[in-house]
Amino acid sequence: MGTRNMGNGPLRILDSTLREGEQFADAHFTQADRARLALALDASGIDELELPSPAVSRSATASVAEIIQLRLAAQVRVHLRCHPADIEMALAAGATGLNLFLGTSPALAGQSLRRSWPQLARQIRDAVGLAVSAGAFVRFSAEDAFRTPRPRLLAAFDVAVEAGARRLGVPDTVGIATPAMVGATVRAVRRRYPGLSVEFHGHNDTGCAVANSVAAWEAGADCLDVTVLGIGERVGITSLGGLLARLYTLNPELVARYRLEQLPGLDAMVAAMTGMTVPFNQPLTAAHAFTHVAGVHTNAVLRSPGTYEAIDPAVVGRARVISVGSRLTGRHAVANFLAEVLGREAAPAEVQIATEALKTAAEGRRLDRAATTNVVRAALSAAGGN
Ligand code: HCA
Ligand code: CU
Hints:
The protein contains 14 helices and ten strands.
């Protein structure tokens, strides 16, 4: 796969940590947090940043203006309902990229908004028209696209395109799409509007977010939404790290312009801002993302890291860890560890003694590095060594 997919433009990553991410139940960013995060995302080479509507709160109004004034290299998009007042507020704050959205599924448009199709169509036409006439770059997104019947979805997009929208968003708002469903919808949208940009935003309610984002890219979407750590409503959306890991393993060139070594810092920053630790299963940045435990694995990895690693930890500025503090440890890992502790190669007998001692000590608990060192030193000195 090249850096372009089915005829679309180069990949663009849109980070929505400041918008979708702040909808995470434990996220309460201060204005200073938001600016710090915007600068860090910009420094890592993210193409676009999505900000909340200035209409949502007074601090959001201030943050939108402040971040626009930072004049980042990343393009700033402001996320807005199709309401004239929201659009006016964003324009007043200096926004030039407007991400408009409106629920088009029966669940959202019918039950919650109680709107008929002609009313929805008028609302889309008026909002997109207003934003376009102000000279903004306008994206129109059909919220709950995957529970919107295809003819309705395309009819909504037709209205938006006719009114001047340049990008179409197909969000999987409740996280129910499969990669095949995402591929089919994105392909249909691309076929109908060949010159326009297509954006995908996938929620992770069924664990498919990263896979769905990549399916969207393969089918011709050029803009993929993420948040740092994947935070967002409920269980959130595609994580930046998950997407980068996925794309890197497809083709490192796809993500060559992002500063991958900054990812651990970004994930740690957002974890701290939301009062959590980086989740144990976060690709690339989890505490044990590059830790090898079982003897079969450590033996193979010591000989050739690629045996059990999808990505070299150095890509994100990390180091691999060969764990020896478990009852599953193996002699090769212990020999490697002893060489570090003793500052010389260990004799076969020493490796044997240390391996047995570690397996016994780790029977009841996992040993950290300090405990591992103590067990090894005690065993060797009891055996009359050092
Ligand atoms: C929301 C819904 C949204 C919008 C996505 C988009 C979704 O929380 O406002 O604008 O493309 O998941 O549908 O995040
Ligand atoms: Cu969302």
